[in-house]
Predict the 3D structure of the following.
Amino acid sequence: MSGIPAAVEIVEGKTRVLVPKEHTLKGPGKRLSGVFYNQQTAFSRDVSVMLFGALKFEGRALDGLAGTGVRAVRIANESPGTFEIIINDKSKEAFEYIKRNIALNELENCIPSLSDVRILLCEQTFDYIDIDPFGSPVPFVQFGIEGCKRRGILGITATDTAPLAGTHPGKCLRRYGAKSVRCVFGHELGLRILIGYLAREAAKFERGIKPVLCFYADHYFRLHIQLLEGARYADQSLQTLGSIGYNENSKERKFPATGEFEQIGPLWLGRLFDKELIARMDPHDFLQCKNRCIKYLQIWNEELDDLPYFYDVDEISSMLKISPPPLNEILEELRKSGKASRTHFSPRGFKTDLTLKEVLERVEGIAR
Ligand SMILES: C[S@@+](CC[C@H](N)C(=O)[O-])C[C@H]1O[C@@H](n2cnc3c(N)ncnc32)[C@H](O)[C@@H]1O
């Protein structure tokens, strides 16, 4: 195929997509060929399709770092609505894939674009902007905020989970201006540090943020954040930032943090999900990872996302020196005296408003 060496056609969702023959199957992905396609991140694209449907999205969207264009082409092909999507990448080879994938699905509302996304975002504005880079989104965030229309939404991926979740705290401090630590609930810290960073960057432009759907999966963080116009919203968002206290020895978590605890942050202490919107997201039969979508929708809906940390069944059991009880039994027991939920961050995790001391007592009670 001219301009596209060694491509194969696959179907993702209900969309035909031309991808490089050699592509990433799992994990953050290496650059195996000139153009990037990762089979595992189909789940993240399923979420985009469901989200556009739930939003009844109208207007102009941009997939700014599109690779083969798979996300935007799927959105255009699988989500109903009156909208236009500019599908952009700075690589000429990616641009060839984008054009082919639009043609393959006969999409009239998609426009291919070959540009540095930062230049595009200095010149044009959009109602939705997707930023899906290799690694950290930091180089693109300010451009995304400036290029986003009133009440527009930013969809952002970050695969630099190691710095954000506390494995490389120095890098996290330099890149996101926040302190992270390695701990059981590190992925939640990482996601909230990233949202906190977005809130501070948006505030510089007199804009606030409203997390619509922010989650962790596999090897990446994914944010969908609505921008709200004006200093009042910017101030409200900044007031939602703070720190979590964590005592590595006692494993106690506290928020807002106080004296004797190690302070982690600044990070976002507010909600992660707009649950009304999640309730409207439809796990269509044609989605690539339909069962996984159903499972995540259930957990996001139930999750106590106003609590910025979670506990882990194995952590609590090893503190008590007991064999781990089933998670469902723990949740049932905790709900007798407080709130408790599963969390999407970990299949072994649970959230509760009870103190660690109360959690230990209740779990020990089950084991007895
Ligand atoms: C992780 S891949 C995108 C994957 C794609 N969104 C998907 O779902 O398969 C990142 C892409 O960003 C492109 N890119 C990197 N820097 C860019 C820039 N400044 N402007 C536009 N595209 C850029 C790369 O060429 C690459 O195709």
